[in-house]
Each structure stands twice: as C-alpha cells, then as structure tokens.
Design brief:
single chain, Immunoglobulin-like, mainly beta, 24-stranded antiparallel barrel, 1 helix, nine-stranded mixed beta sheet
Length: 749
Amino acid sequence: MALSRPFKILILLMMRGAALAQAAEDAPAPPIEIHRAAGPISIDGDLSDEGWKGAARVDTWYETNPGDNTPPKVKNVGYLTYDDKFFYAGFEFQDPQPAKIRAPLGDRDNLSGTTDYGGVLLDTRNDGKTGILFVANPRSIQYDSVLDDPSGNEDSSPDYYWDAKGRITSDGWMLEIRIPFSSLRYARADPRTWRIMLYRNYPRDYRYQFFTVKLPRGGSCFVCRSASITGLEGLPSGGHLVLAPYATGRQAGAATDGPGTPWHDEKVKGDAGLDLKWTPTASTAVDATVNPDFSQIESDVAQIGVNERFALFYSEKRPFFLEGSELFSTPIQAVYTRTVTAPRWGVRGTGKFGSTAYTALLAEDDGGGSVILPGSNSSDLADQEFRSFVAIGRLRRDVGKSFVSLLGTDREIRGGGHNRVIGPDFQWRPSTKDTVTGQVLLSDSRTPVRPDLTAEWDGRALQGHGATAWWLHTTKTVDWYAQYNDFANDFRADDGFVPQVGYRRTDLEGGYTFRPNGFLRRLRTFYIFDRSTDRDGGLLNRRLSVGTGMDGKWSSFFRFWYAFDRVRAGTVTLPRQQLLYIVQASPSLRFNQIGVDGFVGEEIDFDGARTGRGANVNFNATFRPTNHLELRFNESRRWLNVDTPSGSRARLFTASVDRLRAQYTFTSRIFLRVIGQYVSTRRDPSLYSSSVARKDGAFGASALFAYKLNWQTVLFAGYGDSRELDDTAQHLDRVGRQFFMKLSYAFQR
C-alpha cells in the first residue's frame, strides 16, 4: 500500500530528527580554556587560595548513570589551572546529607564504585584513545588507572606521583588534586592541547555517575568523548629523573622435605637493588632496574584448580612492567609479563612520536616459576629451571580513531632453545557504533633439551600461527558481537598467556536492552552461541545460552543465564546443562559489598570423561565496622557428584577456598593488614582411575605493617606462615615461614 504524502513527510521528519539527535550525541564537547594560576596553591582541601582565583570554572555536568545525560541529582563544580610544575583540579561537591557520604580509609587504589570519590581523566597525548584517571575520596585516599579505548580495559596497576586532599563540609565535600607534569607524557608543542573530563561517583540508593561530557549510550569508545583543554603554555619539556633504591632483609625457615620433616632455619639474608625512571623528553620514559625486588606484599586470591583444564590467570602487580602497560594489550595475549619470573636486570623505553606510540623491553630472567604447555582441550605446566633473555616490542600507529600495530616478542634460552613471535594487529572504527579488531601472529620455536622437565622439551622445532578477528556493534538498545579464532597446533607464545592452541572457534552474542523506572534501571536480554573444533574438525565445545542481566537499587547487578553445552572430555563428547548466575549489591557503607556467583547443574568430570551433577559457589563480602577497619571475606566451594559402577551417585570431590583479609588503616599512609587463607580438597579415591589423596589442604597467613610516603617511598615489615596437611590428613604442619622488611626511597630531580 502506498503511503500518503502526510505520512511520507512525517517519516522524513522523524528520520531527520533521529539523524540530528545522533549528530548532537556525536558532536565533540565544548573546549575548556585554562590559564596559569594567579598565585600559590596549597593542597589542603580548601579552595580559598589565591591561585584558584581566575581558574577555569566547569559547572556543566551530566548524569550518565542511571540517567541518560540528564541534569545531575546534586550540584558539582570543577576548577582547573596550572603553574610551572603542576596541573591542578579543584572540586566542590554538594551533598544534601553529608552524614551519608561513603568515605572509608584504605590503601591506595582501594576505592570501589560503592564509595564516594571524584577527580579528573587526562588524555595528555590528545589522541582520544588512552587516558589516565586521577580520583580521590573525601579522606584523601587516591586511585589512579589507565583507561584504554582500543582494548576496552581499565588497569589500576600503574601508579603515578600526585597529591590529593579531601575535606567533608557542612554541605558536601571539597577536593584538591595536584599532578606533576613529570608524571605525564605529552607531545612537543607550545601551546599544547589535551583532552579532559571531570568525574564524580555518588552512590546512594543507586550508583549515580556524573561527568562534564555527554556519554551517549551504545557508543564504542569512552576516552574519545573527552573535551579539549587549551591554554597550556610553557610546560616542562622533560629531564625528570627518579632513583628508587631499596634494601630488604629476610629470615626464612622451611621443612626440609614436606610436612612433618625436620625444620631448617636459614640465615638472615639481605638484598639491595635500584629502579630508575628518566624522562628525556615529556613524551618519552626510560625505565631501568638492577636486581629488582619483585616480591608481592599481598598474596593472590586463590582460585580453585580442581577439574580445570587450562592454566589460571593472575594479574601483574610489579612496577617496572607498568609504564605504558596499555601498549602490551593486544587481542591475542602474546605479552604476559609475569612470565618474566626473576629478572636480574631490565630496561624499557616507552614513548610516542607523532601518531606512533612504542614500547620496548629487554630483561634477563633467572628462571623459576612455570611455563604454559598449551593444547587444544587442556594445558599443562612445566618448571622453568633455566635462564633466558627476553625482548618485547610494539609499535602502534594511530589513524584517526583507528590504528595499526606490530608486535614482536623473543625469549632466548641459555643452553639452547627459543620462542619468537611477530605479527600485526589493527582496530578499525567505521562508526561510533562499530569496532572491528584483528590480529595475526606467527611463532617460531625450538624447545630446550630438558626432557626431565617435560616430554615436549626435547629440542624439537615448532612453527605455527594464531589469528583472531571480531566485530562489535552497540546502540542504545541493540548490541551484537562476532568473533573468530584460528590457532595452529604448534603456535607458542612463551612471553604471553595463550593456554589453548590447535583449534578454531566462532563466537556470537546479541542483546536487547530495556531501561525501566523503579527498582531496576537496566535490563538486557541476550543469547550466546559459540562453537570450537580441533584442527581436524572434531568438536571441542559448543554452547547455546540465553539469559538476562540487570542493574538495580543499592548498586546491585544480577545476571542469570541457562547454557546448553556439548563438551569434549578425552575422546568423547558429553552433554551439559547449567544455570549460571551473578548477584552483587552494596546495601550501605558498613555492608559495602556482597556478591555471589557460580553455576548449578551438570558438570563434566574431565579426568573420568563422564557427566555428573554439581555446583560452584563463590561468595564475597566487604564489611566496614568503622571508617578505619575493613574486613573482606571470600569463600569458594565446588563439588561434583558422579554415578558409581553400582548405579548409585556419590561425591567425587569437594574443593574449597576460605580467605579473610582484615586491614586497619590508621591514616592515608599507614596500615596494618592480616590475611588468612585455607585451600582444601576432599576426594573419593575409589571413583578415580588413578591414585589420588583422599584429602589435601594448605593454610597461609601473613601480617604486614606498611608506611607509604608515596608509591615508591615505602617501609614494609611483615611475617608469613604456610602449613600443609600431613600424610594422615589430620594435622596442618608448618612447611615454611618468613620474616621480612623492605625500605625503599624515591629520590627525584
């Protein structure tokens, strides 16, 4: 049926209105012009200093969550200025009920989305791709992170030198931030143009988020939305130097051959080393380290490894590897710096010239730890009992909002053997709603001649490829995602984290989002389909699932989905149906975080190649009795029941992790932390085809006193104790303990 002229006109007007609305959403935010400070500024949480007079005032803010770029629920004002050495940001955050401000004390970077904070995001390279977030809460607890649009990641591991001071007032709170130009990387130019957005997190009945730029829903980037900031003239051109020597003392003891064996106390050992950072220009950083201390002062949260086929991932926490860490992030994780387990020395350069960013790292690794031995349906680990030299480099060329890149890694093993990986990757943004990403890598390897460590290490040559490509499309209501992976059997990335090779995989996901009013503010229904095969076409895994995810009151999040799977175990393919779930909420400041996730239903016994019924439950809670004391509890349980030869059903195993972390923060620089963690597994040996222990368990405890003047000027004193179940599985015998102290001081010029 033909449309009448009035209807045609109406449709054209609607289409034109939609186009104008889209153009308005995509329009850049108005620029902000700032000027040098009119006088000195003291960082004390008081904006009455002479230097704030004449500072650029930013009072246009938008509520981006749960509102859609609507006027904020409360008033926010930002102020921006600078001098010869520092960039300043000041804030006045109004609050009708200051008693409800959530501002606990804690360690640096310990700011969750369930607490009050505010700050600034700076894109000093003005490329619209990577920004550094500097935020603090009313108790002056700082958080900094790198937000990277190309990868979509936020990484809080890097730390920067900067100062912040918050102060609660009768009608809200105030915040001052001072960032040294030496902590930032920017191009040679005068005047300079950066990008910026100001931010406030305001959790009450819902988690309200306020920005000084509009963030259209369904957009494919975040940093790209920041506003231009102009008027920056006469900034330092580089030459900053930081020397951070350290000294440690350690006294350890251990059971000579496992639980219950004679005890041996080692002599007190001391060590020393040096970290160096030099910025020859404002856009370039050179890092070097000699005999670095890469010890972690907090243990990783244990993960249940029973009935897992692939290696578990733990994030990097060591400072030397974190300058420009976003440049190590590629679609295939070919760089995983925790594979450099015990470097003797290291040197790294990071910078940008024109539209090309780069990073290059060299290190000598004394070995230790494990190497991943990937496979098509499982991975294994081998001890790295040899020294090696590591080289990693990446170039990334920006082309508008897109980029092309080249990555290369090399590990040369002393005594023979190597792993070399090279290849390009790219990201193309054809529109604000679409992102296309891909990477191809080629590897050439020769394994070391160490068959005593693993059969694969017999000096054999291995060559292979790894490739991935995906397309992401997002709008306010509709989103979909498609990805394809192809990895050869002999592809290896020993400097990365690639636990699966020898497969082809297709992933599809689509969703539709509703935004109701009431308890729920967002509801997304979705489907997921993925299918992977080995190189010969044999099915490894197939999943079809449907579900829903929701955001609601008390910063709550719910996700439930039902999965219909077929999974290979050994030489057979077995069916599996599961209900999977995630539930999180933040009811109040005291009960700041409560969450549970896992699955229930059928599960595969991969050792026995059979289907059973079981569940996995991971529970976490954060309780703050006072603003100084924080208690974090994590508990994980996994169990599986299988059919016995007699036809009955019995428990194959029960695995658990229990962890309690208590921290008392005296001031923003001083805290005492105590952690206890118990990991155990109970099995029925009669249901296993090979010999297994009926029960094993391990307990670890640690206590740490810390004083931090800044992130590199620190004093740590601590104690650690580890115990394991003896052969009778009745007693926890001590197998190791350690006293340690570390002093590090950063000299800056």
